[in-house]
Amino acid sequence: MILIVRILIVYDTKRGSTEKVATFMSNVLSKISDVEISKPSEKNIQFYDAVVILSPIYYEKPLNSIISFIHANREALSSVPVCLGAVCMAQMFGHTAKSYAYKHYLAKMEKALGREPECRGIITGFLFKQGSRTFQDATNLAKRFCKILKMDNVK
User: Fold this and answer.
1) Domain contains 96
2) Domain span at residue 113?
3) Distances from the Cα of 117 to the Cαs of 41, 71, 79, 81, 132, in angstroms?
4) What is the widest separation between alpha-carbon atoms in the chain?
5) Nearest-CA neighbor of 86 among 51, 125, 48, 59?
6) What pLDDT digit, counting tens, does each position of 112-141 carry?
7) Is 70 exceeded by the pLDDT of residue 153?
8) Does residue 47 fall inside a structural domain?
């Protein structure tokens, strides 16, 4: 059993939706662990036992700040469980678009990481009005990561 004490959620955002997803995931994960939320330039990850990295997708790719963060922390990220999340509209367009998002959007984050993460997922984004699907996707991703970390008692 892995004992996780501190989880860091790193995100960046252009219009606020990924920040809302990060906050929501923090609320879910904080039921079983200490959680901090940070922009990519604000934290040293060496003080955390697991890291969640979230990026919105613009013009078919994650934000450069997220890719740069992953590159800059690649060595430290190699020794902790990592969960990657892409916040985008792909899931709204069916299974083919969701598969595309996994193969292209998350793959760019994985390439920067240099390995397959312990957990990854696509979270339905929103433009104007947040829907329950966004937060259901975020909850599901948080629960999957907890299960991988052997912390399945999250509600």
Assistant:
1) yes
2) 6-148
3) 21, 14, 11, 7, 26
4) 41
5) 125
6) 999 999 999 999 887 656 678 888 999 999
7) no
8) yes
Q: Amino acid letter at 28?
A: V
DSSP assignment string, the chain? -----EEEEEE--SSSHHHHHHHHHHHHHTTTSEEEEE-TTS--GGG-SEEEEEEEEETTEE-HHHHHHHHHTHHHHTTS-EEEEEEESGGGG-HHHHHHHIIIIIHHHHHHHTS--SEEEEEE--SSS--HHHHHHHHHHHHHHHHHTT-TT--
Closest CA to 24 of 99, 149, 126: 126
Separation CA 104–CA 101 (nearest Å): 5
Ramachandran angles phi, psi of 50, nearest 5°: -155, 155
- For the entire predicted model, the pTM comes to 0.91
Question: Quick check: is 101 in a domain?
Answer: yes
Query: CA Rg, the chain, in Å?
Result: 14
Q: Do 133 and 122 form a contact (C-beta atoms < 8 A)?
A: no
